[in-house]
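Sequence in, structure out. Go.
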Amino acid sequence: MAVFKLDNVEDLYAIGNVLGSGHFGQVREVRERATGVLWAGKFLKLKKGAGSRLGLERKSVEKEVEILQSLQHQNIMALKDVFESRAELVLIIELIKGGELFDFIAEKENLTETEAIEFMKQILEGVSYMHQKYVAHFDLKPENIMLSDKHAPNPDIKIIDFGMAHRFIQGEEYKSLGGTPQYIAPEIINYEPLSTAADMWSIGVITYILLSGLSPFQGETDEETLRNIVAMNYEFEPHYFSQTSNMAKDFIQKLLVKDQRYERITAEECLVHPWIKPLNRTQIAKRNRSSINMKNFKKFNARRKWKMSFNMVSACNRFCRLQLLCKARGPEQQELRDCESDQEDTGTKPASLLRRRLSSSS
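Output:
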């Protein structure tokens, strides 16, 4: 059961500056009064009633809170407290200042595979812990892999955003049609029963991008991307993988496997794969001589950030047009008012819509 406190959040935390905002509320820096420790406070508006279109339903947050309260690991964003009032929920979460891992890497002039592996190892340790708790994230992508503090000598990886996460119960069959097209596993697209193995596919895609600066299944459209995933249409193009070790390619190949249950390796198996944990000096030497394609990686990250900015501007423009439309229609069109204002633009497109497009165009 998720644990919610009924205390006044301001009695325990001093509320500071706004760090970000969205359709459902805002994130502010908060200071714990008893210890002086800084956290982030996520202030979420709740729906006032069953017919209200503004705000979030409590149940939609409760599942994420319950999962986060059960996960306490160095590489997973910490949730300290949750406060509930009639109007809002306040989540007190770890203040993560280091930004996205991919942005941090893109600032470097060069990066060896050995250095990249140190980050991958932390990601795998966090994912392995989750899976041992029977939790799958279902939205692993660069935007959800952060650094605690990029100025630290050895910054910690932090996996964030558990809005799509699910805890498996023994004997349960779970299906879902959500995720970001270029990172989702084929079993999601095919609407098959899911397992924690779907996260491992995403790890394979992230590793491929990290080493080459190329997305393995990316097409001109989302539909083409999904077709490429289902058809397993990817390769290690020499132009992008000339500096990549064979061990790294083997690691990726063991993750980008269509058969999720019997062939795709687990997080625990990844941690003992020779690319992550070399067996001898020869393997160590090969890793040290190999490096990631920084020139192409920087281009990929720049395109990724541009797309995120474009999506945000587009969402804001749609929201402004909607507000003008609602005002022009007047109170008699109340059902149109705020019809998109409670739809958060996260860059995660529902795979269900993509599958329908895919079916209609085939």
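Check: Strands lie at 13-22, 25-32, 38-45, 79-84, 88-93, 135-136, 145-147, 157-159, 166-167. Residues 140 and 203 are 7 Å apart (CA to CA).
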